[in-house]
TrEMBL record:
Keyword DNA-binding carried by entry: yes
Keywords: DNA-binding, Transcription, Transcription regulation
Classification via InterPro entries: ArpA-like, CprB_TetR_C, DNA-bd_HTH_TetR-type_CS, Homeodomain-like_sf, HTH-type_TetR-like_transc_reg, HTH_TetR, Tet_transcr_reg_TetR-rel_C_sf
Location of the HTH tetR-type domain: 8-68
Provenance organism: Streptomyces thermocoprophilus
Keyword DNA-binding: yes
Matching Pfam families: TetR_C_45, TetR_N
Protein name: ScbR family autoregulator-binding transcription factor
Record feature DNA-binding region, as residue ranges: 31-50
Length: 231
């Protein structure tokens, strides 16, 4: 079990290092030696998990959608909003996510690497949520969830690229707030609009909520493991 846990940790260290290097240098200029130096692992350890630079890049891409995880909401449209802000906020500091996004939009990423898979994953996940929103009466009857998601994912991609170029994503929250201010009146039923939260600091607050819940879960788990006499 300890060996398996070490292997999992090592794989994560390698992925995070690769994400940082891919983000900084792009696919073509990244070398395995650069990743090894950043991860501070042996070549054998890296090749045990990833037999090639291509497989490493594909693994970094596969991690991208996981960073959209947010607490489930009764209002599914709010959950979609929260996912965009959470990803936007995590892009400010998470090297693995930044690397995955860079690979997905980098024209130098070779054709053998499926850059489209993260977009398909986002589409499936967000479309399912918008379909639930429609079933709950949150959307205007003219809204087609799959088409709306395509517009949202494409808009988010362009906005974060622009934000990166201009401010290293420091203004991404504000740009997302503007995006939603334009989108929501065209997809949400009017009665829902006042209750939806798409303010620029939404990502900060959602991630703080997640962190608080994780801390509470960790404390509860520690209490359950502690001997009765030291609780």
């Amino acid at each position: 079990m300890a060996r398996q846990e070490r292997a999992i940790r090592t794989r994560r260290v390698i992925l995070e290092a690769a994400g940082a290097v891919f983000d900084e240098h792009g696919y073509a200029s990244t070398t395995i030696a650069m990743v090894l130096e950043r991860a501070e692992v042996t070549k054998g350890a890296l090749y045990f998990h990833f037999p090639s630079k291509e497989s490493l890049a594909q693994a970094v891409l596969a991690e991208q959608v996981l960073f959209g995880s947010v607490p489930s909401r009764g209002c599914k449209l709010q959950e979609v909003i929260d996912m965009t802000f959470a990803v936007g906020q995590r892009l400010r500091s998470n090297a693995l996510l930044r690397g995955g996004v860079r690979l997905a939009v980098d024209q130098e990423t070779p054709a053998g690497i499926d850059r489209g898979e993260p977009f398909r994953q986002w589409s499936r996940r967000l479309t399912a949520l918008l379909e639930q929103a429609a079933e709950q009466g949150e959307l205007l009857p003219t809204v087609r969830p799959a088409e709306t998601v395509d517009l949202l994912v494409g808009s988010f991609t362009g906005i974060q690229l622009m934000s990166r170029a201009l401010t290293d994503r420091a203004d991404l929250g504000q740009r997302l707030a503007v995006l939603w201010a334009h989108m929501l009146p065209s997809i949400a039923v009017p009665g829902l609009l006042p209750g939806l939260d798409s303010r620029a600091d939404r990502g900060v607050r959602v991630l703080a909520e997640i962190e608080t819940a994780e801390d509470a879960e960790s404390a509860e788990g520690a209490g359950e493991r502690a001997p009765a006499g030291v609780r």
